Amino acid sequence: MTKDSDWEAYKVPPTRTPVSERTTSVPNPVNIFQTIFNYVVDAPVTFVREWIERQQAKNKHYYYHQKFRRVPDLSECLEGDYLCFFEAEAQWRRDRLVDQQIVEIMRERLGACKQREGPNHFQNCAKEVEQLAQVTKAYQDRYGDLGVHGNARTCLMKQKHRMMEERKAQADASQ
After folding, report:
1. What's the whole-model pTM score?
2. How many domains does the chain have?
3. Residue 6 placed within a domain
4. What angle (nearest 5°) sits at the alpha carbon of residue 109, between those of residues 159 and 94?
């Protein structure tokens, strides 16, 4: 600033905001209510919650990473063992979902590669194209033509018929 500046026009702000010090003999009812609420409601709830969190910390359970044990395949179930049939069906459905997700991930990888590489994606994304072709062929071989209502039994029959056709073709070729 220049030497002839008017200090009254540009006052320096106070360093501290003044606090009103109100002292009375009557206690504030808000403080009394907060203290009573703290001891009656908040403290017990906080104690119970912390105790539950300590118990849960001892044995962590991640619900989103549920692991199922592998069960026997439908072909390994005994005749009339309906519980085994049900478990094999549930296992087949989980396997189908996993295989669908694998195909979807490979599709996303190929799409990301095409987006990243631009016009050169034909030569630079050849590995992803080959992987997607292999994965979709494997998925089609296993689950293709089953439809929406496909189940483990029809999938097993489809695989059995395919194996019989391959053996027949192999036997015809060797003769």
Report:
1. 0.58
2. 2
3. no
4. 40
158-172 as b/e: b if 16+ CB within 10 A: beeeeeeeeeeeeee
pLDDT tens for 115-170 read 999 999 999 999 999 999 999 999 998 998 888 888 999 998 998 998 999 999 99
Note whether 166 and 88 are same-domain residues: yes
Cα separation, 3 vs 121, in Å, equals 70
Q: Given the structure tokens 């190929």, which residue do they identify? A: 110
Residue 114 lies in a domain: yes
Sign of dihedral through CA atoms 95, 101, 107, 113?
Answer: negative
Residues 92 and 164 in one domain: yes
| One-letter amino acid for residue 5 of the chain | S
In a domain, 77, yes or no: no
Q: How far apart are CA 63 and CA 45, in angstroms?
A: 25
How buried is residue 92: exposed, middle or buried, by Cβ count under 10 Å (0-12/13-18/19+)?
buried
Residue type, 165: E
pLDDT at residue 140 in the model:
92
